[in-house]
Amino acid sequence: MTSAFGFWDYFIFISYALLILGVGLWVSRDKKGHQKNAEDYFLASKSLPWWAIGASLIAANISAEQFIGMSGSGFASGLAIASYEWMGALTLIIVGKFFLPVFIEKGLYTIPEFVEKRYSTNLKTILAVFWIGLYVFVNLASVLYLGSLALETIMGIPMLYGVIGLALFAAAYSLYGGLSAVAWTDVIQVVFLILGGLVTTYLALNTVSGGEGVIEGFKIVYETAPERFVMILDESHPEYRNLPGIAVLVGGLWVANLYYWGFNQYIIQRTLAAKSLKEAQKGILLAAFLKLILPLIVVIPGIAAYVIINDPEIMARLGDVAQHNLPSLGQADKAYPWLLQFLPTGLKGIAFAALAAAIVSSLASMLNSTSTIFTMDIYRQYINKNASDKATVTTGRISAGVALLIAGIMAPLLGGIDQAFQFIQEYTGVVSPGILAVFLLGLFWKKTTNKGAIIGALASIPIAMFFKVGPKGWSTNPLFVDIPFMDQMGYTLILTMLVIATVSLIQHHGKNDEKGIPLTKALFKTSPTFNIGAFAVMLILVVLYSLFWK
């Protein structure tokens, strides 16, 4: 057994890379006599079918932070981290039912554009700057870092070269083709992503069972480490601070999920590019079903790696190669790359292509959305109000390139963080409660005013930072000093909504705001297909949580 790549591994991986680049550039080409306009570049000409939307949502969502970060969290804490995926499935249903109809009816390009229509240009600009900073300094940088970490661990490629290679690969088709190139290549990326992920899960469970198969392997893993299959952690668990018990179901995880799936440009942009609302809702439904199976390929391998490493007999069977890049509770993110080295020649190439697909598709999505927000909400608002289609598309490409350059410089500086998935959630959690409060009240409470929303959005950052660092300065009570970040997000959302509501009521004396959105039953009516699918997703979730509650 060897950790090195063989001929067929290189062949499969290079074939995958050429296929993605070829398809990306082919769908990006300008049709004869038609120059790419803003709708073509940023919204794929509003032509995406449901299956492309569903696949693209998952490809944009699943990145190195899931494959490497969630496997690392699976290694450290177990199946509890799967709540991000399973609760995400339920959140997608809510987004499809209640948020999408409003967004699509308003014909949006960007999420900040909704803010302008509901509130004001000033608030739109504040949030656009928020998002660009978050995408560049947290999301893009962390995906580049984790992807390069995988290349370094598996193939020995130095971090700097890994960052440059991944950045150039994502840029090669996404900067030229825009959302159309990103979405259509995502359909291929998802096939590699799921196939490669299942290959790694199969290998890990088959290794545990000593070649007796996946089912036997799962039984052994479950019997050996039952504590790793608890969904709701109690306060004595070392990972309770990251996944605080029942609050995962009824608390701050809703903030993370509703913000991410409902008001996050690089996710929602796919649904805005749908042929119709019904097509977008069917795509959301497909993504929800895929979310239910994702823990099988991003969490279970991490748990299996934990069992393997703690079993001297299996480790002896694996030989010297098993000692290379060994993960530990202190370096849990090494779990997934460590497993890949045991795959046989050929399958290693497929699994590595899956990891690359996850990284590159997310990079491309984030780049496209960063450039969309910058171009539509800042460039066309403040720099060139009468920009031609050619100038708009060119600015989109340049801004994506600049964002990628900054993120590439930042990426190596993230070295040393453990459980990167948790790091991303924690720092996104400083910004997301305020943005979520502004959107929820803007959508569903007609009395919300622009002034209330601006004061609430600005106040949410010091509120979030108070819960993050403030209590340590004045209290010795562990209840206050070490508030789990998920609870911090929940408290921040509630307090921000109170600030917005108070200012709005004082300003308008309880009257409806003139820009309040009129909501009707007809707006939220969904098809029988969507309703049946949504019921099936909820039923499966009830069964899963019943099986793995404690």
TrEMBL record:
Topology in the lipid bilayer: Multi-pass membrane protein
Record keywords, A-Z: Membrane, Transmembrane, Transmembrane helix
TM stretches of this protein: 6-27, 48-64, 84-104, 125-147, 153-175, 187-205, 243-263, 284-309, 350-374, 395-415, 427-445, 452-469, 489-508, 529-548
Domain of life: Bacteria
InterPro entries named in the record: Na/Glc_symporter_sf (IPR038377), Na/solute_symporter (IPR001734)
Location, primary (coarse class): membrane
Localization, UniProt: Membrane
Family from the record: Belongs to the sodium:solute symporter (SSF) (TC 2.A.21) family.
Protein name: Sodium/solute symporter
Annotated organism of origin: Maribacter aquimaris
Origin organism lineage: Bacteria, Pseudomonadati, Bacteroidota, Flavobacteriia, Flavobacteriales
